[in-house]
Task: inverse folding
């Protein structure tokens, strides 16, 4: 039987998550006329924000807090609704093997008080996967602006916002029209 640590570090699981989010880098959409799959689809309004708490057992705690704030702070606009809906769909369709691996990593590091190791794993692995999800959602929903650089955005998975004031939340995640969070 494989050790939990081996399961979590198995490249295949990260490849599986990458496949879920179109493995490889998603280039920022700067000209929506060049994007084949760009279509502002129906999504979720701020009032329909999914319960991130239902995924709290496997997602990073700071991400759960920050994504909940972001979901509620983003405007009720076609692109924001599309991004919200796309992210919800991608997270809900995360394979159970990945959920189990992340849950185990959280249990063996975060819950065991090994916070520095957990944060390193978040920044090096899990955060990058979540960042690609966000990039994919923005690209699919015709957002012309790129997200902040990953190094800056990675705080979304490591540092919970103290409050959910709209300006702070949008600045942390980036927005559809500008990296500073404007929609």
Result:
């Amino acid at each position: 039987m494989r050790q939990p640590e081996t399961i979590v570090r198995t490249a295949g699981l990260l490849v599986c998550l990458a496949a879920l989010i179109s493995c490889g880098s998603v280039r920022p959409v700067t000209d929506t006329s060049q994007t084949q799959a760009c279509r502002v689809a129906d999504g979720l309004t701020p009032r329909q924000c999914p319960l991130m708490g239902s995924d709290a057992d496997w997602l990073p705690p700071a991400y759960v807090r920050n994504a909940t704030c972001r979901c509620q702070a983003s405007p009720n606009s076609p692109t924001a609704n599309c991004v919200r809906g796309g992210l919800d769909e991608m997270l809900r369709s995360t394979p159970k093997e990945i959920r189990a691996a992340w849950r185990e990593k959280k249990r063996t590091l975060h819950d065991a008080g090994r916070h520095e190791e957990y944060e390193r794993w978040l920044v090096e692995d899990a955060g990058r996967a979540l960042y690609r999800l966000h990039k994919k959602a923005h690209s699919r929903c015709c957002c012309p602006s790129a997200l902040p650089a990953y190094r800056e955005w990675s705080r979304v998975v490591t540092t919970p916002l103290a409050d959910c004031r709209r300006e702070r939340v949008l600045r942390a995640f980036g927005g559809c029209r500008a990296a500073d969070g404007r929609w």
About this structure: The mean pLDDT is 76. The chain has one domain: 4-13+49-173.
